[in-house]
Design goal:
The chain is mainly α. The protein has one domain. The protein is 75% helix and 0% strand. It has twelve helices and no strands. α3 runs parallel beside α9, α4 packs antiparallel against α9 and α7 runs antiparallel to α9. It is elongated.
Length: 318
């Protein structure tokens, strides 16, 4: 009996009934991934934030084009989609419940963004309708519709400029200080799932998302407003606000297309080739407008989804 006992201890791998050692190895690998302080989504959104920041910095030295303008809005949409994934994490929801005043401030900012993009879409839709009708008028050599179109695009420019001033009022001065308050100082005695350091990191990420939403929106709205506004009006605005020429410059492709339309004049005396050329410019311009409208609608929906998740967090905290 003793010999059998010693043999079973000396040669454990000889026993076919014994389980392999793989479970313990897999358990060891699994334990390595658990103590990670930052969620992978935080790293992902930081990369997207850096991409947005690079885009906004490039707009300060280079004017926007009909291609890179939608790119900036697409980056903004993707960042908000990742932001929504972060808001749905239990850790995030638990941490934000301890800062209801800060969440309410975020809700106020998000409402401004939604209102701005909603009104922007309404203005663009109105311009598209005028754009379609003026193409028909050009084919019929009706100059009255062309005059109406010129007035409508200037009206659009002024409406969008008002949206810019509203978005620029968003301020994050006090927000980050609220996340520096330790959890133990909260009125609730429950322990937060996140440490103070994690809360500060989360707060910094959220503030970056909101701040870059302002920067991207201002760059896009300003460029569109300057593109459809008259050159004289744009110059007066630049002098009064003391900005550089680059900040007030519109989208070059749109301005070229509009310049040809503005200079057509006296349609009844124009030849077929000139009218055809202008109509081609109008179709190209329509594609630019539709591209901006499409990506703005996606950003608009992403902003609504972000606000809904913030509202849910605030409701659960009460």
């Amino acid at each position: 009996m003793v010999g059998v006992f010693r043999r079973s201890v000396s040669f454990p791998n000889k026993n076919p009934n014994r389980p392999s050692q793989k479970p313990s190895i897999s358990h060891h690998i699994r334990s390595i991934s658990l103590p990670c302080r930052s969620h992978p989504l935080i790293s992902q959104i930081k990369d997207e934030i850096n991409g947005l920041r690079s885009w906004t910095n490039s707009t300060k030295s280079n004017p926007l084009t009909s291609k890179n303008l939608p790119n900036g809005l697409t980056l903004l949409k993707q960042t908000h989609e990742t932001f929504q994934d972060i808001l749905q994490l239990p850790q995030t929801q638990e941490s934000l419940r301890y800062h209801p005043a800060w969440v309410e401030k975020l809700l106020e900012y998000s409402l401004r963004f939604i209102d701005a993009y909603g009104m922007f879409q309404t203005s663009i839709l109105s311009l598209k309708e005028e754009h379609s009708s003026v193409q028909i008028a050009i084919r019929k050599r009706d100059e009255s519709k062309l005059v109406i179109y010129m007035k409508s695009k200037k009206k659009l420019s002024k409406e969008i400029e008002k949206l810019v001033s509203g978005i620029r009022c968003v301020d994050f001065g006090v927000a980050h200080q609220q996340l520096n308050v330790p959890v133990c100082c909260s009125s609730s005695s429950t322990t937060s799932l996140l440490s103070v350091a994690d809360s500060v990191e989360l707060g910094g990420v959220i503030e970056d998302v909101m701040r870059l939403t302002v920067s991207v929106s201002v760059a896009v709205f300003n460029s569109v407003a300057m593109s459809f506004g008259s050159r004289r009006f744009s110059w007066v605005k630049m002098v009064r606000k003391g900005g550089s020429y680059k900040e007030c410059e519109g989208i070059e492709e749109i301005q070229k297309q509009l310049k040809e339309v503005e200079n057509i004049g006296n349609l009844k005396k124009k030849g077929d080739e000139e009218v055809t050329s202008v109509l081609k410019r109008m179709r190209d311009l329509e594609e630019c407008i539709c591209g901006v409208e499409s990506v703005c609608e996606k950003v608009f929906r992403a902003l609504i989804n972000s606000r809904v998740l913030l509202l849910n967090t605030l409701t659960q905290s009460h």
